[in-house]
Amino acid sequence: MTDYDPELFSALVPMFHEELLTALSAHLSDYRYQHCLRVEKQAMRIAQEIGADVTRAGIAGLLHDYAKERTDEAFRVMITAQHLDAELLNYGNAIWHGVVGRYFVEQELGIHDAAILQAIGRHTVGDPHMTTLDKIVFVADYVEPGRHFPGVEAAREALANSLDQAVAVELQQTISHLVERHVKIYPTTFATYNELGTN
Ligand code: DGI
Ligand code: FE
Ligand code: FE
Question: How far is residue 167 CA from its own chain's centroid?
Fold first, then answer.
């Protein structure tokens, strides 16, 4: 069983783990809260296996969807208040909950660690220059044991080979899925695919 480094945890998070769970569950439906708990565990397991920072992986995994159930209006207000790229206003919750959601985590939970906030910000659209922590959260969200979509096994098999291979499979499958649904694709998603999802 992989576990948090208690000293590092308390340096990064201004409350106990149990209080963090309470704060998270206050903003999420039970089904999404349970998903967050599974992503926390999955991210810690991946980090442990590759010798990465288990504590940051767990915190970022746990909180990655913290803002997912906020209103569109709350996101628009945050985009304006943080002077984020106005282009973001052309997208919706699917993009906002990570890219903009990181500011809710910082302001409401008092977590200021740049690496954790970045991993939360990149968990949906990735980034051409994702760090190992970014990749761990990106992949953990996709392969956690509650996921059952077609292609999840291919991603899990890729992860058994390497984290980078799992990132590539996830990007390939996500882009295909979005194109099939004829939805607008955020430019960073394409840029990430071009850098990390192609041969
Ligand atoms: O929040 P989760 O459901 O746990 O997972 P997620 O944050 O990875 O993805 C949320 C949704 O966003 C999922 O249906 C895939 C979709 N998505 C990923 N990239 C893009 C996107 N949707 C649009 N419209 N554009 C994108 O570039
Ligand atoms: Fe998400
Ligand atoms: Fe998620």
Answer: 13
